[in-house]
Amino acid sequence: MLFRSQALLRQGQDLKLSPEQTQKIKTITDQYERTRRDREMAYKRSEMEALKLIHDSRSFLFSIGNAVQKADQDHSKLRMAGIKALREARDVLRPEQYGRWRQDHAARQMAQGAPQQERGEQYDNESGDAGRIAPH
Predict the structure, then answer these.
(1) Distance (Å, rounded) from C-alpha 59 to C-alpha 53?
(2) Range list of H helices, 59-94
(3) Which end of the chain has fewer beta carbons closer than 10 Å to its terminal beta carbon, N or C?
(4) How many angstroms separate the Cα of 134 from the Cα of each of 12, 67, 104, 110?
């Protein structure tokens, strides 16, 4: 999950969120959670449909390709919902609050051993993926 809204709310005291900011972030969180559930279900259904077609020897490659593309589109919609919520939450925070939240978030992910792209960093030049956000 790209947008970890509950973590942002838990950090509210450290970030010195105003009651108005807290309420706005709760609204963003609630909306995101509903959207995320819907998008995850659509993505899972698309993946299952693609898998059924892949393992059905009577399926045409064209049908399989369409199903895989649909699953990719549903996955993209899920990711975009997280990005949208993150940006909305960022707009609620003052620049210093956002900077602090990003710093704390990255430190927690480093401690958990999260890959660079999950911390919002780009790959290094040695990997051959310079400038790319994700490995795919």
Answers:
(1) 6
(2) 61-92
(3) C
(4) 29, 23, 22, 17
Q: How many CB atoms lie within 10 A of CB 20?
A: 9
User: Residue 89's closest CA among 26, 1, 134, 18?
Assistant: 26
Q: Is 57 helix (H, G, I), strand (E, B) or coil?
A: coil
Q: What is the pTM of this model?
A: 0.72
Question: Residue 71 carries which side chain, given as an amino acid letter?
Answer: A
8-state DSSP, 125: G
Q: Answer yes or no: is pLDDT of 107 > 90.
A: no
- Residue 109 · residue 89 · CB < 8 Å: no
- Residue 120, C-beta contacts closer than 8 angstroms, at least 6 positions apart: 102, 106
30 within 8 A of 50, measured Cβ to Cβ: no
